[in-house]
Amino acid sequence: MKKSIFVIALVLFGATTMSAQEAWNFGVKGGVNFANFTGDDFSSDNSRTSFNVGVLAEIPIADRFSIQPEVLYSGQGFDFYERDQENVFDTDDNVEYQVDYVSVPVLAKIYLVEGLSLQAGPSFNFKVNEELDYQPLDDAGDIDTDIARDFEFGGVAGLEYKFNNGFFIQGRYNYGFTKLIKDDSAFGDADIHNSVIQAGVGFMF
């Protein structure tokens, strides 16, 4: 079901793109994620530093208003530090719980002044990877887990500045409205949500 929804989203994205090439602006983007979890049942000061990368399209609706759909790969999760140096694992400085998504945000984009825009809207996030990695600086140390939900409904808000040459910079906050943990997992109905700060750059063609 998850794969079917994702395929449909990509097909719709591609089909509408081809039918509106003259009106739309297309782009690529990438950046850094500072990801963590938040909620009544979780507290941590250790964010996971990862990345996001993807494609986007800007659909002008009015002089200062556009709709911007995107398809992104987003690395999320959190870090917890391994303090016992005599443990059975050969660890790096930290251990990461990694939960990565293909995210499809659909954002309203309001230009406050020329080049500077406020962006906000929903994000439809599909889990594509989940693991505990006790050697995040190496290819080894991956332990597969399956406690996070396969789909998350979230929200995105942020600011972007686009230069006349098409280059842009942006900062965003992403929050998962859906609870992260599956109801049938060992953690039950825990109140834990994704929380991600993103900083990135991109280019509009």
Automatic annotation (TrEMBL):
Residues 20-181 form the Outer membrane protein beta-barrel domain. Pfam families: OMP_b-brl_2. Keywords: Signal. Residues 1-20 form the signal peptide. Transmembrane segments: none annotated. This is Porin family protein. It comes from Zunongwangia endophytica.
